[in-house]
């Protein structure tokens, strides 16, 4: 597909048709790289995508246990308020 380079403020850019944005899942932004004189756009994933599943897996495996179990949770001794 041929697209024209257009002026955008003091810069230049291209318009990416909505159908291509949908097909490539470009919803949140892109990573732009230049390799060997070519511009490569890679869609960014949704922020924090997969975190919920990762936390559930961590909990299921017991990896979310308190690491310093010998510390009392409500110890305020020695603190000045």
Offer a quick outline of the entry.
This protein has helices spanning 18-23, 51-60; strands spanning 6-8, 11-13, 30-35, 38-43. It has 81 residues and is an alpha+beta fold. The chain has a domain at 1-46: Pemi-like Protein 1, Chain: D, CATH 2.10.260.
Task: Fill in the keyword field for this structure.
81 residues, alpha+beta, two-stranded antiparallel ribbon, two-stranded antiparallel sheet
Structural features, described:
By secondary structure, the protein is of the alpha+beta class. The protein has a domain of 46 residues: Pemi-like Protein 1, Chain: D (Ribbon), CATH 2.10.260.10. Helices cover 20% and strands 22% of the residues. The radius of gyration is 24 Å and the shape is elongated. The N and C termini lie far apart (67 Å). The mean pLDDT is 85.
Q: What can be said about the biggest beta sheet?
A: 2 strands, antiparallel
Structural category is: alpha+beta
What series of H and E elements makes up the topology?
EEHEEH
- Relative helix content: 10-25%
Number of strands: 4
Strand order of the largest sheet: 1-2
CATH top level class name of the domain at 1-46: Mainly Beta
Secondary structure topology:
Elements: E1 6-8, E2 11-13, H1 18-23, E3 30-35, E4 38-43, H2 51-60
Antiparallel strand pairs: 1-2, 3-4
